[in-house]
């Protein structure tokens, strides 16, 4: 029904072709006779871009005119992946494009894969931001994303001799999806000093003076909703040397080199995405990035508000700002600064506005990921902000002291300033104090933050400031786009594609679990998707994998807490077991392909060691003639969003095996189940809610529970550590150089045997191996497996980011949707 809205631009093959040819011949100045795939991609993208611009302008006009509350999602990461396929599906003209491209001699899939991923993120947090934007637009919420326009996204990973190498990801050439807004610039100040004086009315004024100015330039990216005209805006800031007198003076004085150097240093701010996931390193440039982006975004938001000529007290009725983790916490301080230093509000009046405006989402409990900035660094870079932070802290601690008199330990624990040497600013504390709502991203995670890192704050503010919003994924990209065959089969059974915007409709599929023809179709689609992945593996690694084998996948950032080491040790155990079998016993083995993918942070040595081990095991196992099809180990290079779109539909089982209590939510678990894969996992993050929704008979759970983790860690240190016997056999094989020089892996085995096994690999090894035996057994019963697969998909309705956005809108933002009409 929504197709009637696609009036502008083209609505059939002929009209699309006309637009495509026009762009190829004029915009690109290419002749149709030497049009290659790259030109066909650009022409197609430009044709769809025109469509988006029309809707985008309408959306912005309507939102400005209607003048209601807007949401601003501040995130240092937006892991968008490719835009063309998404644009075609969201405006509903993919078939016109497919036919038109075919007329010119192209396969649409080849054209789509010309596009470079927009990889402005590390992993889960950045991809969540991208899924939320898709849902915000689809549900017609007036919403903007604000981020940084990194010149280099997450590095490209190459595996050389089993080692990870990092290659810079320069992605901006010929990017048709961004619009430079050279007229929208903001001057951002750094360093300098604060002058305090009394103005003519006797008011104390703080003036931040001198220092350096860097310019922020806006680049806008249209975010189309699915089946709606709403096309929201993602505004990314790029840094540029300020074109103020300062530079010209240098140029005029003949100091050309130094002027160019200044320009270089300004442009460094938005040059590169920090590639750490869940590890805070305290680098000054990262703090500069954070302030640069927060200040530019707030200037923009405040400017938009001021045009409405409302009283400041109405700011929170017009503006909701969501902080994606603590990375944008300086926005809280910046808004307070604008209100008191520039707009002249009283402190208390301003602070009420600030706290009503902000919400803070926490994405991790790992202590090494909690952001802290040295007070000295902050004082040097942002002198006025540090003063405001001290004042915020003073008033906060005074109020705590009143409620909990003489509890000095409490004051020390909750203070924004950690009194260590050097002193540190605790960003999470600042984020909690400056927000009206704090949320975790899965039930267990939200409970854990209330019971551990934020316990004191629950006592101080009461439980109402803390809430849970369980993560989700957008079914448009992760089902319809990634798995068109499954999406079409579901649509056929359900009588249309409404489930893509109301995922709970999937529950109607349960009625067909026993339908024989449907089951066959379901199985055939999984096989076809596995075949596509097998072909991809062949093309990229040279290895042949048996498409009938059980595909066992673990793709995510490499991190000790996610326990890829547990997986590869399990693979080695399997290999050793097969080697020890008789020929008859081997006949009963369920053939398996163990597929890994993921990047390690460049400085994370242990994670790189795990990648090295996986690759070495692969090269031994894959060419062992005794093993043949029974076991293959594959490491997929440079895992990213577009590769996830190939991998997720092709898994039989995927692994979500973090040490209980460490994975805040996980979202790939949802992607795999939604695509008909089963999962093996620990009782951690959203695995728990997935289990509740799909039923515990449909998931393979194993391992220590979160509540038992602390005791076990303690025991590892204070009583004798006993390495699991089967794991010992695995370690012995490694130590006998079976997978290359044992010395390369000594630190990895030692972290378990000698240094306390913090992630409980040995404790969980036995139940992990036993559970995999159950996986094999279940997989042999094709009908049982299929029933689990279908039932699980039918029960995944809860995990759409549409539900997530509605929860944020109701319980945190208090915003209403606004439909965009012709
Ligand atoms: C400062 C270094 C740094 C960088 C990134 C610290 C922390 C992060 C992110 C918060 C890490 C992250 O991506 N967290 C993931 O967020 C997902 C979305 O909520 C969750 O599904 C994952 O469980 C969580 O690890």
Automatic annotation (TrEMBL):
Names of the cofactor(s): pyridoxal 5'-phosphate
GO molecular function: glycogen phosphorylase activity; pyridoxal phosphate binding
Database matches in SUPFAM superfamilies: UDP-Glycosyltransferase/glycogen phosphorylase (SSF53756)
Residue numbers bearing the N6-(pyridoxal phosphate)lysine modification: 671
Catalysed reaction equations from the record: [(1->4)-alpha-D-glucosyl](n) + phosphate = [(1->4)-alpha-D-glucosyl](n-1) + alpha-D-glucose 1-phosphate
Single biological process term from Gene Ontology: glycogen catabolic process
A Gene Ontology term for the protein's cellular component: cytoplasm
Pfam families: Phosphorylase
InterPro entries per record: Glycg_phsphrylas, Glyco_trans_35, Pyridoxal_P_attach_site
Gene3D superfamilies reported for this sequence: Glycogen Phosphorylase B
Domain of life: Eukaryota
Keywords: Allosteric enzyme, Carbohydrate metabolism, Glycosyltransferase, Pyridoxal phosphate, Transferase
Classification via CDD domains: GT35_Glycogen_Phosphorylase
Enzyme Commission code(s) on record: 2.4.1.1
Biological role stated in the UniProt entry: Allosteric enzyme that catalyzes the rate-limiting step in glycogen catabolism, the phosphorolytic cleavage of glycogen to produce glucose-1-phosphate, and plays a central role in maintaining cellular and organismal glucose homeostasis.
Record-stated family: Belongs to the glycogen phosphorylase family.
PANTHER family linked to this entry: GLYCOGEN PHOSPHORYLASE, GLYCOGEN PHOSPHORYLASE, LIVER FORM
Name recorded for this polypeptide: Alpha-1,4 glucan phosphorylase
Organism listed in the record: Penicillium alfredii
Lineage start: Eukaryota, Fungi, Dikarya, Ascomycota, Pezizomycotina
